[in-house]
Design goal:
four-stranded mixed β-sheet; 2,3-Dihydroxybiphenyl 1,2-Dioxygenase, domain 1; alpha/beta; about 35% strand
Length: about 140
C-alpha cells in the first residue's frame, strides 16, 4: 500500500489572520472554499459541520496546511498546547534565514517561547506561538564552511 502525507489541518479563530501569517512566511494559498453538508458531517464526524477553509502550500510544493475557521458548530477554545502535551504538537518549517522569519512573525505579534537555540552546529531553531496559539517551529540549517 502506498501512502503519502496530504496535509496538516489546523482549526483557527481567524482565518484571514492565519492566512496572513503563513503567507508572509512564504506559503501560498492554493485554494479556498466554504464547506458544509452531509458529506462534511460524515467525513469530519460533526453534525451541521460548516467551515471556511484555505489550503496553503510551501514553495517546494511538498508541504500543505489546511486551515479551517468553523462557522458551525461553534469553535471551542482550548488552552494552547505546550511542547510536552500529548497529541497534535506543532507544525515545523525549514527557513533559509531564521532572523528574517522571526522578524516576519514579530510583525504578527508572534515571538519565540524562549529564544533561538543552536543544535549541534547543524540547526538554529525556535518554537513560537502563531495565530490561534498554534505552535510553530522554525529551523535554519547551518551551512558548513
Amino acid at each position: 500500500m502506498a501512502i503519502k502525507l496530504e496535509n496538516v489541518g489546523i482549526a483557527v479563530r481567524d482565518l484571514e489572520e492565519a492566512i496572513a501569517f503563513f503567507t508572509d512566511l512564504g506559503l501560498a494559498v492554493v485554494g479556498r472554499d466554504t464547506v458544509s453538508g452531509e458529506w462534511t458531517d460524515t467525513a469530519v464526524g460533526l453534525d451541521g459541520n460548516h467551515a471556511n477553509i484555505a489550503m496553503l502550500q510551501t514553495p517546494d510544493g511538498h508541504g500543505q496546511l489546511e486551515l479551517f475557521e468553523y462557522i458551525h458548530p461553534e469553535a471551542i477554545e482550548s488552552a494552547p498546547t505546550r511542547p510536552n502535551d500529548i497529541g497534535m504538537h506543532r507544525v515545523a518549517f525549514s527557513v533559509d534565514d531564521i532572523d528574517e522569519a522571526l522578524a516576519i512573525a514579530a510583525r504578527h505579534g508572534c515571538h519565540p517561547l524562549r529564544g533561538v537555540a543552536t543544535y549541534s552546529d547543524i540547526y538554529k531553531l525556535t518554537y513560537l506561538r502563531g495565530p490561534s496559539g498554534i505552535l510553530v517551529m522554525l529551523a535554519q540549517e547551518l551551512k558548513k564552511g
